[in-house]
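Q: Convert this sequence to structure tokens.
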Amino acid sequence: MFHGVFYAVLAGFLGAVASSSAKLSLGADYLKGVCESGLRSWVGDEGLGREEDEDETTACDWLHIPLRLLCGGLLFTCNAVMWTFFAKALRYSSSSARATVTTTASNFISSAFLGQLIFGETHAVLWWVGISLTLSGLLVLHSAVPRAKDAPLVKKEQ
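A:
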């Protein structure tokens, strides 16, 4: 049963990584801005003339395209591995509902942390109340003891 929970949590995390990769690859100019700020911090602001500033801009004009393609590849790879782990979670869990709810909760929490880490997003109190209710339901689902299977019914002969 522990294996099912482990695979479900991994599947949720990989789903969140895939979503973040999609946002990076299809986002308007986020990667271009990251490229420009990364080049500025790598080269340093001291001593940069106007000519070198233009070189940075032209480098990031084309460099964001391979970065977007890389994020697109990461999107498809994470989705494929996520579905593999979700299938394993279904196989090792005692119920499909348990695997599905665990994966969903892991995805929500991972998406919140990745969104804050990568994009600087914040969530309203209502969002946190909702995720707390989801996690409470998950706790109830995991703490419930599975029912024993009913004994097979014996047909009475007439």
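Residues 50-92 form the longest helix (43 residues).
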